Amino acid sequence: MNPFSISILSFVSLALIMDAVLMVIWSAFMGIKRHGRVCIEDRSINQTAKELAKGLEDHVCDSYAQILCGKAGKIWVPESDILNALDESKSDKYIHLEDNVFEFAKRRALESIVNSLETRPDISGNKDFKCPDMSAEMHKPLLCCARQWMYKHLLHILAVAVMLIGLIRVLWRIKKRHTLLARAEELYEQVCEILEQNAVMAKNAKGGDEKWVVASWLRDHLLLPKERKDAKLWKEVEKLILEDSRISQYPKLIKGESKIVLEWQVEGSLGPKVRRKEASMNTEIKRHHSISSTNKQKQVKECDSLYT
């Protein structure tokens, strides 16, 4: 083989090697991989480009959302800020990627946000990026959205709050009134039972006990210490007493002082509790009489047996 042929073969081999190297560089730059004679896209590079684009969109939209929430931010973000954000993400999250691979992913991410964000040229010829208004609204923090909603509907909120407070106060007064009337009826029943029982005891007593009871003594006896501070409670009891024709109320001089006394006026119109007490007392008396008579009969029989 002559020297000329050798030089031609060397040149062809060098050309093939350079072509292979350029193909590898071009494939990495374009984000594709070569499998035999077929070229396919590198999925990892595409995924990185999508993640970078998503991060850039969030960065631009978060900056606009800060403005909407009354904080420091930017509506139009310069391209230099975008590139700085990409470089920071390279050093933080994508440090394992090769520089040429990351450069391709960065270029793909910039192409993607050009389509998804609003752009305008600046004085130096670079681009400024702006998040669409709807996307910026979606990037506002929840606390900011709640605060703005409250400011927007402040009058309605105040009106509803006043109505709720008024309704609660009305319901509280109704409940308090219902509790007061229920307790007054309970005390009224106790007053009737005491007066009935006192009338029965005065009727059965041999010493001629008084049938009346001082109203103030009865009040202090029935009311709890905390209930004595509420004058409305006993006034409701007095109303029920005045409406009862069976109870007589009149002034009486006791130890030189005029007192209002209460007296049960109806004979034989005893309440169920008093009737039960009176019936139990009569039953007890009869039982004692029967026991004593039985004991006497036993004693008589024992005496008769001794004499016989």
TrEMBL record:
Residues 277-308 are annotated as: Disordered. It is found in: Nucleus inner membrane. Residues 299-308 have a biased composition (Basic and acidic residues). The keyword Phosphoprotein applies. One of its GO terms (molecular function) is chromatin binding. GO terms for cellular component: endoplasmic reticulum; nuclear inner membrane; nuclear periphery. InterPro entries: Heh2/Src1, Man1/Src1-like_C, MAN1_winged_helix_dom. Residues 31-264 form the Man1/Src1-like C-terminal domain. The chain crosses the membrane at residues 6-29, 154-172. One of its GO terms (biological process) is nuclear membrane organization. Pfam families: MSC. Keywords: Membrane, Nucleus, Phosphoprotein, Transmembrane, Transmembrane helix. This is Uncharacterized protein LOC120279645.
